[in-house]
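Batch 3, record 17
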Amino acid sequence: MARYLLRRLVFLVVSLALACVVLFVLLRMLPGDPANALTAVGASPEQIAAARHAIGSDKPLPEQFTHWLGQLASGDLGTSFVSSLPVGSEVASRLNVTVPLTLAAFVLAVLVAVPAGFVAAHKRHTWYGALLSAVSQLGIAVPVFWLGMILIAVFALNAGWLPAGGFPQDGWSEPGDAIRSLVLPVVTIALVMSASLIRYVRSATLDVLDSDYLRTARALGSSFGRAMWRHGLRNASVPVISVLGIELASTLLGAVVVESVYALPGLGSMLATGIAQHDYPVIQGVLFVSTLGVLLIGFAADLLQRIIDPRLRGRLSGGAR
Amino acid sequence: MSLKKTSLYGTATAATLVLTVTACGGSGAGGSAGSGAYDKNATVSIGSLYEPQNLDNTAGGGQGVTEALNGNVYEGLFKLTDDGKVEKLLAKDYKVSGDGLTYTFTLRDGVKFHSGKELTSQDVKYSLQKVIADDSQSARKSNLEVIKDIATPDPRTVKVTLSQKSISFVYNLSYVWIIDSQAKNLKTTEDGTGPYKLDKWTRGSALGLDRFAGYWGDAAKNKEVVFHYYKDATALNNALLTNAVDVVTSEQSPDALDQFKNNQNYKVNDGNSTTKLLLAFNDKAKPFTDVKVRQAVSAAIDDKKLLESVWGGYGKLIGSMVPPTDPWYEDLTKVNAYDPARAKQLLAEAGYAKGFAFTLDTPNYDPHPTAATFIKSQLAKVGITVTINTITPDEWYTKVYKNHDFSATLQEHVNDRDLVWYGNPDFYWGYDNKQVTQWVQQAEEASGTAEQTALLKKVNEKTAEDAASDWLYLYPQIVVASSKLSGYPLNGLNSQFYAYDIEKKG
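Prediction for the assembled complex:
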């Protein structure tokens, strides 16, 4: 296990380094010049050159890249071209919105989808099993912004129970308001996420229900519940966990639509603004942090799978036991 | 000129270019009538789509920084009122020399910056220099480059010498923030003299202003103002509907207005806008070098129908670059009015009886794509084939504005008094008429507003007749507010939003 962990960590660091190179290069291949955003309309070539010099975009790319890596190594995400604010502290304040939003939505989605998916599989021949299955199918097709608008119309505009959007300016120092403003966005993401999760849980459960080992366990005298608990869930959870990992990772950045509908100052909207302004330090900072997040989630999902499924321990580490 | 008022992102490359001239246009008064008692310690929440990029208006802060800080946190020697008048603010008095080249300003006494420092002539000199500095991105930079010398004979007196006469000098000064010359980090902090001081700016979310106890003038009529920023117009309207904000500075679509119009808790105010939607031809590229072709295109498009489809019953038709609030306004909607038969005849006279084809560079945000599709269908009826090329604001800036590499384009021009751009043959649309250039120059050097107005009227008439561009319509300026509020600005001139007179009932 220790060897596996080490290998997995090396893999993580290499992935992160590769991601840095790709994102740095791709960013500079985009059309447009950040200096345009920093000079007045009608600026002279000298003024534009001065702006390029001021932000260092006139230096050779390898030099810019090593400069960035050096900053990263010292824990500095740089300074925004446009606002002159440090990127790190802004990312941190945005994470205060995005992380609770993503995690809460994720937990809620799992709490809904796991039992619902199980019921949809186990009771697939009953009317409610079929209904669950149909509803989740429909749920996958629902666009997030539409669901958000409906929830706002019902719970904020008509009922007036919750705010229609925004986040308290003082953030979590007003915990009540902060939580209230996250309820609808969390529900929105969770509903959409659980729709697809239900499908995965259902199909994983179906595989298990048809499996030989479950039948054998029953034949040996286990009750259905006990056989499911000891053998079924464990087997079903392995594919589900990798899906969960992917869902969680994509929500981290995919929250941009929800952030826009609910006017939340999250990481996604910071990225969108940064891209529009060619604000390289902002784009790089956000993408670096979220790439790191995604890789860590993948790491955790892999680890969890190995703990649950002993068969993987041999396979993934590639070595003899 | 500015690329866009409604842009969610991407306005950074836009900025505002303005050439302007003094004198005042009368228009609506500020806010709905104040009546009854109001809460002197109220918090006013203002909803806006325009978050500042940073807090420095000479460093690309964008339209958001003008909206939030102009007149509220920073003040100029003069101020532009909501109805377009220029009034003295930090200048107590001023004198102009006989040759019109030397302006002597006396500063108001007892003015303190938020830091506690007293205002002196040094600060004024510093602030003026900041606007015309090499790295300045101020929209007024080119207008103020007539400044030759700034002298400060004593702490209360500033003497500015110009290289040539400039009748709009005082007007342009209303855009120059007077900043503490010792202040640092102006992109993220402030040190102005206004009725509010910056409380806290949370990027991506809100910017708070607190009433400044040491203000030299009348104290603000509310204790605190918070600008809440939204990226999505629907989210902004929802905020107003749920009382999360008290007022929306500028509605950008008529769709949402019905829910406020038929509700006594809200007031929908139809103010005067200066934003014009233009179909700008490249007057230096064939076939638009031909006046008849430009006139034909203008006559082939039914502006009224377009305005109706984009804005419902709001907005106005204009026949030239001049909105009714500019002093040199004349109703020229009859010039090159909608007349498809005349359009066909003009095309035949120009040698395009069978029509022609051109590409229309269309910014990718509303209302440009809608307008482009409409124009395409209208021009098809007179035999002109339009290819719509959708581009981002950044591409527009490089391709159209800088490189003049286009046939025709759509663009919003937001500022007042921007007719004078037709006097600049190097401007992106390439209108080059020696007489017009001369009139514009003479107007700027005019000795009085009557002379200036008369000259610019000629410019207005000539450019309209020449169909220098096709001015499709004038946007409405719609402020929607809670009925508890009064005293807010209605016209949002050049994106300003003075908050200090806003009264909120408890």
